[in-house]
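User: We ran a pulldown and think these components assemble together. Before we commit to crystallization trials, I'd like a predicted model of the whole complex to look at. Sequences follow.
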Amino acid sequence: MALKLVIDNLSFNYASFAVLKDINIKVDVGEVLSIVGPNGSGKSTLLKCINRILKPQRDTILIDGRCTTKISIKEMSKLMGYVPQSSISTFPFTVFDIVLMGRRPYINWNLSENDSRIAAEMLDFLGIGSLAMRHFNELSGGEQQKVVIARALAQQPQILLFDEPTSSLDIKHQLEILCILKSLAQNLSCSVVVSIHDLNLASRFSDTMVMLKKGRIFAVGSPEEVLTEENIAAVYDIKCKVTHSLLDKPQVVPLISEDRVVRSLNLPTQAPLPTQRL
Amino acid sequence: MSSTEIKTQYTKAKARKFLALFLVFIALIITIILSISLGAGSPRFSEAANVIFSRAFPFLNIAPENSITQFIIMDVRLPRVCLAILAGAGLASSGATMQGVLRNPLVSSYILGISSAAGFGAALAIVFGVSVFTPIGGYVVVGNAFVFSLLAMFTVYGIARVRSINTETVILAGVAVGFLFSALLSLVQFVAPEYEALRSVVFWLMGGLGSAKWQNILIILPIIVVTLLLMSKKSWDLNVMSLGEEVATSVGVNSKRTLTVCMVLATLATASIIAFTGVIGFVCLISPHISRMMIGSDHRFLIPCSVLVGSVLLLGSDTVARLVLAPTELPVGIVTSLLGVPFFIYMLLSKRRQSWR
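Assistant: Here's a predicted model for the assembly, 635 residues in total across the polymer chains.
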């Protein structure tokens, strides 16, 4: 397999505050790589560095061996698609209009036959053809997420980035979206990079996992290698049990006692009740 | 739905948009005919058509009308109609562009403070005779209003640039600059030595198309045509901006550059109009909304539709403004609001869908 995306010793600072340090990641063609880690560990920053919304200080991100800083923003959009956590359109657009926006890198003013064909095929591929003429803002969160994925696919990218794609969805749509990700990698040979909070979903759907702690890679490897009780304790500061009994992939069951959470909140012990003041 | 069905549906939706554009175009033609043939000295429409055709196609050898009719049509009505169409088109398309690029349905092309700045520039020239131009012909007030409009835009750009060019910084800086210039405008009005000058300033601020002359139109026309074409060229970028700056970047659109370019284009168009007409409000705010309700948010159709709707609205309002208190003319800004607001509220209440999210 050919290496698609290489992140070679990436560091990133906001002003003088280091957010990412010494990040090394390699992603193959057709691979799903998930990035996990606590809030503030640098997951979103890492994704934004990859798709150049943020610009790292040194040339450290390579696509097919080419440094991303040498690739124009337009050419980049043909190589890489990005799906944000949730999307809203300020003005009312139909679903088909939104998917056509993914053809922006290929069109000037007029659409070609090819552009509308590709957009229609992407809707069909994701099974949401019946939504084509509906208004985007009137759809449910799960439907919107699929439309946005169709928009990213219409760019015909080789790499797809997803920023917490499941965090506002119900359990059925979470599974659906991640099945779509998996099939994009397997059937369209995309390299998929996804940041995600849910360790169990990440475990089921990724080939490789990267676990971040305070801007550094704490663990990297297969879900079995990364999701160990020791790693989770060290990164998330919780006790858990990792079980292989339900699926062939590890599943994490947190064991934290309520008592400890309440103590860590520093609640006032003798808060006066409102009635006492009367 | 299969992908061929989707494409058929999309083609149908597009056909409906072209039909809507055509209907507004017909409305514009009707408004033009009414506007030319109504008013003081009123030549009948057949006479007006005679004059226009005999001038436009001299080889037809149409018998010319008498010279008074010719004068009214060629030097009074037609320039005014042309100025109304140009101004309506330019203001409405700038409004649509600014709303699109700033992702905000509340902004108009005046969001960068250019109306107050133009007013301040005009007031300086009217009250004190101070001008950035050495007085050439009658363009002292016009030149001052135009230059101060551009000054307001560059100030906004400069302020926003210090942090980062994005929608929030531009809107906030625009509001601040607008307040600055309106304070300066009030100051000029407050210290104005003569009553006559003050009256002229107030009259200028209300806006009107009374200054319509062919030579003015020849100055405005190329600016509006060029900026309109360039704004239309940005249609896809404006569409993409609706999904936010990050997504815009990921589909290959440089959002900062798009914002800067659109700011410059909308300001050039707006400033070149209001320098001649004074501040005509409301057209640039509601024409894009009316168009969005009719035709959707795709800027490839929205900008042409706004152009037509803005022209109809301003030309219609100007015709009413000329007629309602004849022989006195109402300032057109009053009429655009009085006519436009009820229509706009009707559209708001009768449409199932909002024209913003």
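Chain B has 14 helices and no strands. That may be worth checking against your pulldown data before setting up trials.

User: Thanks, that helps.
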